[in-house]
């Protein structure tokens, strides 16, 4: 599990859903949660929050990524690759710390990802979990 620390900067509520914006260092991250400030006391602007996401939910991008809908994008450099026959585990050094991604080995090869490659780790808003 990847865990980052940030601070809540905005909350948009619609029914029982909240779109929570948090900043970690100077990286803006967003999460959709099935809670509201009325149902979860930690959902308050200015409060610290942990942002959690599974290694299998980290999408890796290389090059120009301007025309995709993923909002959570964290730039980094690949520091480690463990290649298996079907899946590979990548460790990415970012300004927020290490992020681990598990993707197919075929994707690693198609994207020509190697040690020191500049990549973007991307996480869908509905895959980003929050915790106090």
TrEMBL record:
Pfam family, one: TOBE
Keywords carried by this UniProt record: Molybdenum
PROSITE patterns: MOP (PS51866)
GO biological process: molybdate ion transport
InterPro entries tied to this protein: Mo/tungstate-bd_C_term_dom, Mop_domain, Transp-assoc_OB_typ1
Ranges of residues in domain Mop: 67-132
Name used for this protein in its record: Tobe domain protein
Organism: Fulvivirga imtechensis AK7
